[in-house]
Amino acid sequence: QKYAGVDDLGDLKSATNPNDSTVVITLAQTNPTLLRALSGRLGIVYDSEASDADYAKQAVGSGPFTVGKFTPGQSLTLDYNGGYHGTKAHVGTVTFTQYSDETSLADAVSKGTIDMAAPATATVASQMNGKDGLTVTEGATTDKVLLAFNNNSDSIMSDQNVRTTFRYLIDSAGIAASQSDSSGALGGPISPLEPGYEDLTGLFPHDMSKTQTMTSYFGPYLTTVDLVVTAQWQPMAETIKQQIEQLPRPSVNLEVVSDEEYAKRIQDGTWELTLMSMNGTDDAGTFADPNSIFHYNHAEVQQAYADARAATNDADYAEKMKVYARKLSEDAASNWLYTRKCFTVASTKLSGYPTALIDQRMPLADLTVK
Q1: Which of 62, 122, 221, 353 is 20 to 30 A from residue 83's alpha carbon, by CA?
Q2: CB of 185 within 8 A of CB of 338?
């Protein structure tokens, strides 16, 4: 239990290695996402001689690179591993340096202090676009931006009719089109890179006429909603506030709070609307947990997710996740706005570097330098 994300393995019954080149994993019940879990952190083969390493402070490497030096929160240096049995790296050393702000990162890549910024923000990518000696590339991610609803029983958003009203009221497509980091409107909890994706943007098109009819039904019941965000989401929150307040009711109490206060408010459930991102493959299942921060509790949706988790092959899992996602979106459990894209700014002397999902992984074995 000391390793991050170990729960993604599912109900692990045993793990054995009958010989030097085989590992046998036995589960107590099906886990259709096991292979994806093993393709990430959970699939790392640790050095048995370094099994007691404190990975919060130390780094132990294998594969095409080994760890040369690691300074937590500052830098990581990878060295060429000549003893690696697979395809060997094309470069001898790669050094990662962490930058705390956009200005410092943009300055470093502009001056050539670093050869690549990845992932770069949309702001940095825009500043570097068209500059001599640099290439700006866009890539897909599974990062989903949503206007989340607090479905707890003491929240006005626990009413399915209210949630539906808000989904018609918010111009999700317009918001998605206006964001520099958007790769397109979403409409549901699964991104195009995840199993079970279906374009659900047509379920709740922006419709002021329908919204006016629905809000008149609520009368004085729908008065004020609380929108709690951190500073990074304030511009989008202002847009959403303006869209909601096109109608006489409801009004929006927009609160911009510190990161610390935000974490406490979300955990305590003292909010009704918030803007956030979900950045993980298969994180759609969060909505099937009534104890999650969304407090969404719907027996039919939970059963649909359980059916998907019981799948024993990829095709069946994807099809059942599609059913789950549609039920979840039709019930307006939240308002999924768009999927993010990531940006890479690199020197033109570099090639072979990844451009998709770089917010999660950075395979550099194919990286070459002219």
Answers
A1: 353
A2: yes
Decide if 89 is inside a domain: no
Q: Which sign does the torsion angle of CA 241, 296, 334, 356 carry?
A: positive
DSSP-derived secondary structure letter, 232:
G
Q: Which two tokens stand for residue 1?
A: 């239990």
CA distance 32 to 312: 6
- Using an 8 Å Cβ cutoff, are 110 and 131 in contact? yes
Q: How far is CA 267 from CA 100, 159, 260, 264, 292, in A?
A: 26, 21, 11, 5, 9
Are 270 and 261 in contact, with CB atoms under 8 Å apart? Answer: no
The helix or strand, by DSSP H or E, that contains position 224, with its residue range, turns out to be: strand 224-229
Radius of gyration of the chain (CA): 23
Q: How sure is the predictor about 218, in pLDDT bands with cuts at 50, 70 and 90? A: confident
Tally of domains in the chain? 1
Whether 152 maps to a domain, the answer reads: yes
The answer to whether the CB of 105 falls within 8 A of the CB of 117 is yes
8 Å CB contact between 258 and 229: no
With b for 16 or more beta-carbon neighbours within 10 A and e for fewer, the 37-49 pattern comes to: beeeebeeeeeee
Q: What is the pairing mode between strands 251-256 and 224-229?
A: parallel
In a domain, 317, yes or no: yes
The answer to whether residue 358 sits within a structural domain is no
Q: Assign 46 a pLDDT band (cuts: 50, 70, 90).
A: low
- Helix and strand tally (H, E) in the chain? 10, 14
- We report the CATH number of the domain holding residue 148 as 3.10.105.10
Token couple for 151: 């479905």
Chain-centroid distance of CA 100 in Å reads 20
Model pLDDT for residues 118-163, shown as the tens digit of each residue: 999 999 999 999 999 999 999 999 999 999 999 999 999 999 999 9
Q: Are the C-beta atoms of residues 78 and 65 closer than 8 Å to each other?
A: yes
Is the Cβ–Cβ distance between 298 and 269 less than 8 Å?
no
